[in-house]
Amino acid sequence: MPIRYSAKTLFSKAAWHAYNTYRKGVHYHSQLSQITELLNSSRESIEAFQRVRLAKLLRHAYHTTPYYRELLKTESPDISQIPPLEKRNIRDDLEHLCSESFTREHRIKNATGGSTGAPLTFYQDRGYWNQRNLSVYYFDRWAGWDLGDPQLVIWGAQADLKADEHWKHRLNNFWRNQYWLDGFHLTEETMQEAYDRMDKYHPQTILSYPSSLYQFAKFIYEKGLTPKWRLKGIISSAEMLHPHYRDLAEAVFDTKVYNRYGGREVGLIAMECTEGRMHINCRDTYLEIDSPNPYTQPGEILITQLNNYVMPFIRYRIGDIGILSDEVCPCGNALPILEDLLGRTTATFRTRTGMLVHGGYFTQQFYDIGDVNQFQIIQETLKHCVLKLVVNERWTDTTRRYLVQSIQNVLGGDVVVTVEFVDEIPLSASGKRQFTISKVTTGSDD
Ligand SMILES: [Zn+2]
Fold first, then answer.
1. Which CATH number do you get for residue 434?
2. Alpha carbon of 238 to ligand 1 centroid (Å)
3. Which terminus of the chain has fewer Cβ atoms in its 10 Å neighbourhood, N or C?
4. Rounded to two decimals, what is the model's pTM?
5. How far apart are CA 186 and CA 218, in angstroms?
6. Cα(281) to centroid of ligand 1, in Å?
7. Mind listing the pLDDT tens digit for each residue in 299-317?
């Protein structure tokens, strides 16, 4: 590797260190070594740590949030008896879910457009974010990443970056040593440009949505290109990693794809190891399967987030389906295993000009929209889309105009968008969540 890239990596490692230490107040090296020691220890040690964190969170929730004071009745309830936290509870009772021991200034607002089709606004605190980042640093190392190493990121650019935010985004990419390919709007030109840049940039890992990764791998394969750079691994996150996505990416990039499972509401939930098993992040979460036997019968995944004190998520029904394994993984890590995950799927839409639009673009338009409970967007043809909505009493026609405009902005101003109001969006026959569907195939097999 040419020397200037090593210098860039060293610079980036120093910048990451400074960022964590001075901006976030986190002594990254010591904390990461503590986390590593814990998560590499025995199952008993990890579960003992988790029990203490869980009891502390339940006490906090009972004593400081109106919602849980009413629901729990005691500071040490049997967790399996607590009614799950539904998305509608968060929409209807957001204020009561917030802890009285924090002021409003401590609340960091976050939102999900909902790849699960249900837009949601919620709060997290600084402590949550610090721990969430540390966990990402720990688990992404499984895929060969480390702070400061060059990384190709294929991810959704924010919808409407203002001029100064574009500048910030580029500065962040520079010091983080990341090259960003907009996964929301892939074209042959942007993929070719990214490919050419990588020959000089030599990324060690790729972080990507699986569907965007698949499109990029397919582009490289169909063009008959052979990447000259050697990857240590690929991190796939934020939606279902279908086997054919994985197979093509592993063949084209000649490396392993690691599936990372998480959600904006609760952070990193599980990560795949070298043996291809998903290990549950018991340091940050307490994961349950809503099923009579979670080892034999799949059920809805319930997540208790152990670090977010400003707004406790207890038995949160995240919208994915899973099943546990009681096996011990041969990789040597003792964290329990999520055997199978039936998660969120996101479609790729096509425009008449040949641009590929990631379904995440559409779900992002629902961030912070309070008058839609659920949605589903279906691309029927290149000229026609159907937007199905479950709305609530806050619904206004302004939202309708905004959503139609957002769809036309990327698919074309003359695309007809039919808005249908429905009572519910049913699950597909397989039980999968599909809130973005494209019937425009043009020979593609995804
Ligand atoms: Zn393992």
1. 3.30.300.30
2. 20
3. N
4. 0.84
5. 12
6. 12
7. 889 999 999 999 999 999 9
